[in-house]
Task: structure prediction
Amino acid sequence: MISMSALPTVNATLNATSAVFLGCGYWCIRRKRVTAHRACMIVATVVSVLFLVSYVTYHLQVGRKHFPAEGLAKSVYDTILLSHTVLAIVVACYLAPVTLVRALRERFDQHKTIARWTLPIWFYVSVTGVVIYFMLYHWYAPA
Result:
């Protein structure tokens, strides 16, 4: 069993893994490797769902962790966190499900139209999730 203190690292790893598979999926579809694209996107989706379960579990048990710095660093952190949070909700509640359903129903023209929005936003959310982790758990404020 994984300890609660390990979950932030697990979450960052899941976010990074999602970003890698999103990038690989994009690379595959640009080269018309549809089967590989599908596999990458399914893995990115599963990993993101695992992230969400782990994230909610952690925060229900531990609560919120506050950013340790002030000033410009805090402003940068808050900006990243706000954009990450808003866009994560948009991806999880609308963009990813609609994009996935359109692909599964083989409505590829509609899938492609929304995927052009979903991919960069989802990628941003995954990468900024890792950035937030490093800022929260590995920040060394100046003395």
The longest helix spans residues 72-104. The chain has a mean pLDDT of 95. The CA atoms of residues 77 and 132 lie 7 Å apart. The chain has one domain: 4-137.
